[in-house]
Every structure is written in structure tokens, then in C-alpha cells.
Write a structure and sequence with these properties.
Distance between the termini: 39 Å
Helix content: over 70%
Order of helices and strands: HHHHHHHHHHHHH
Number of helices: 13
Number of strands: 0
């Protein structure tokens, strides 16, 4: 197995550990403060990088010169976008549980993460963020009006940004290079699934088999850029069903707890749930679950949400 496949059980086990630790008093509060400081550092790094690297020819070797999109401390803009997308929802909920100057500082950080997310120009993360906003409006009546407005504004800005880059017609017509490349990878994945639908080709075999099922795009081993198709290609319908059952159980548990607990636990669970929804939606067109750092982020926040839900059930007072 490769590092990516070994990391799955490790990150899943880490979720269990995090859930157990976060069920203890005040652990979630400290964890959220750490997330806020970390997000501030990541956003500051990304802004400084854009401000100086692209203006200094001495840094011409930097990957940012290739992407010309905000990427921060990550290897590419999509990974940064995934982080900002998920953490932004968590920070929004955290801000609503604070008061005074603390709330204003965190709200400012939420705005900064949203602006950085826009600058990554990662379409998959934008779609994931839209799904997270939709989940927030459905699950949280208090967010309904603001959430719908934010969703409409985000959709309009996405259209404007694509139009400004001249990509809107290409994306809609499926002639965009990224869209066409993904379409080719998905066709290859579907070919693998057709040949071995029940148990798949085996863990970590997608890249090894990719050229056999290649139908276009770059002729080199690739990930499917659709985590669910790749899971099905490698472990069959049986593996995909088990994976979706795990995700379904996680969200069922969180939604039930959101409806049962009071404030501020409910706000925090809403933010965590929205961020996790955004992640699983983006995973449908990117490699989230096959990237160690992104998978670790998802399962860690899942553990934090489960621990918080258990703590909320056992300790209703306003102490998280």
C-alpha cells in the first residue's frame, strides 16, 4: 500500500481519538481557538505570498508562478481552497458564540478566508462552499435568510469571476481544459467499475490501471478526481457502499444532535456540519479523501463534531 492508502485507517482512528478527547470539558473551546489562529496564519501566508512572490523575479522558481493563483503554504491552489472552505464555516459558527471584540476579530478572519478562497479560483471548492451554505440554511433556521443571501451572492461572484477570466462559456460547454480532463478520468474510472463492479481492482490500483482504461487527456497515471468513483473502481460497489454508509452515519448522528441540543453547541455543530458537507461535495470532483492533509482535516473535524455532540448531550449548560 502507498502512504495514501495507509493513511485512511490511521486518520479514521485519529477521528475516534479526537472524538474521545473533545467530549471532555473545554477541549472544544481550545481546539476552536487553535483553528482560528492557524487559519489566520495560513491566510496571512497566502496574502504575503501573492503580494511579494509574483512581483519578485528572484522567486521565479516558485510554483505560484505556474499556477498564478493563491496557494499559500500548500502544494497547489485546490488544497488551500479546501482548507479555507471547510475552516471558514467552523470560524463563522465560532464567531457567533463569542461576544464583543473577540467576535469582531473572528468575523474579520472569516471575511479574509472568504476572499482568499475566491482568489484560489478553485471551482470545486466554490461548489463545495455553496453546498455548505445550502446545508447551513436548511439545518439552521437562524441562518436561513443570511445563508440564502450569501448563497446568491456567492453564485453571482462565481459567475462574474469565470466571465472575467473568459472561462464561463467553456465551463458551461464542457470545453474547459480542467472539465474535459476530469471527464476523461471519470470515463476511465467507469470503465474499471464496469469490468469489476463488485470488489473492484484492489486498493491503490487506480493509477496502475489508468493507462489501460485511458480515453483522453494527459497520458499518464492519474487519480480519478472523483473520490467516490475511485473508491468504487478500487474496492467495488461493496467498498463504496461501506464508505457511503460511514459518511451517512456521521451526518445522521450530527443532524440528530443539532436538532436536540441548545446554544452554543448547536451553532458550533451547524458550522462543523456545513464544513464537512462542503468537503464531501467537493470530493465528487477533486481528490480530497486521497490527499493526506485534506483527509486528516476532514476526519479530525469529524471527531471534534462527534466529541462536541456527546459533550452537548451530557452537559447542556453554555460551556463548550
Amino acid at each position: 500500500f502507498t502512504q495514501q492508502n495507509r493513511s485512511f485507517p490511521a486518520t479514521l482512528l485519529f477521528m475516534v481519538i479526537v472524538a474521545d478527547v473533545c467530549a471532555r470539558p473545554r477541549v472544544v473551546t481550545r481546539a476552536l481557538a487553535f483553528i482560528a489562529w492557524s487559519a489566520a496564519g495560513v491566510a496571512a501566508h497566502a496574502v504575503i505570498q501573492i503580494a511579494f512572490v509574483l512581483k519578485t523575479k528572484a522567486y521565479a522558481f516558485h510554483p505560484l508562478w505556474y499556477y498564478r493563483r493563491m496557494m499559500g503554504p500548500y502544494e497547489n491552489p485546490i488544497d488551500l481552497a479546501t482548507y479555507l472552505m471547510v475552516v471558514g464555516f467552523v470560524l463563522l459558527a465560532y464567531a457567533l458564540t463569542r461576544r464583543g471584540q473577540a467576535r469582531r476579530r473572528i468575523v474579520a478572519l472569516v471575511v479574509l478566508t472568504a476572499l482568499c478562497l475566491a482568489e484560489t479560483r478553485a471551482l470545486g471548492a466554490w461548489l463545495g462552499a455553496s453546498a455548505g451554505l445550502l446545508a447551513l440554511t436548511i439545518l439552521g433556521p437562524a441562518f436561513r435568510r443570511a445563508g440564502l443571501i450569501a448563497l446568491l451572492v456567492a453564485a453571482a461572484l462565481m459567475v462574474v469571476a469565470l466571465q472575467r477570466e473568459g472561462r464561463l462559456s467553456e465551463v458551461m460547454a464542457r470545453s474547459d481544459a480542467g472539465v474535459m480532463d476530469r471527464w476523461a478520468m471519470w470515463q476511465a474510472a467507469l470503465g474499471m467499475i464496469r469490468d469489476r463492479p463488485v470488489l473492484g481492482h484492489g486498493l491503490n490500483t487506480f493509477m496502475a490501471n489508468y493507462l489501460t482504461y485511458w480515453v483522453g487527456g494527459e497520458r499518464q497515471p492519474r487519480y480519478a478526481h472523483n473520490c467516490y468513483l475511485q473508491v468504487a473502481a478500487e474496492t467495488g460497489v461493496a467498498g463504496l457502499t461501506a464508505f457511503l454508509w460511514l459518511l451517512g452515519s456521521l451526518f445522521t448522528c450530527l443532524i440528530q444532535r443539532i436538532r436536540q441540543v441548545g446554544e452554543p453547541h448547536r451553532l458550533l455543530l451547524l458550522g462543523l456540519c456545513a464544513g464537512l458537507v462542503a468537503f464531501v461535495v467537493q470530493a465528487g470532483i477533486d481528490t480530497n479523501f486521497y490527499s493526506l492533509r485534506q483527509a486528516a482535516l476532514f476526519w479530525t473535524l469529524s471527531g471534534l463534531a462527534i466529541g462536541l455532540s456527546e459533550r452537548a448531550a451530557a452537559d447542556p449548560p453554555k460551556v463548550v
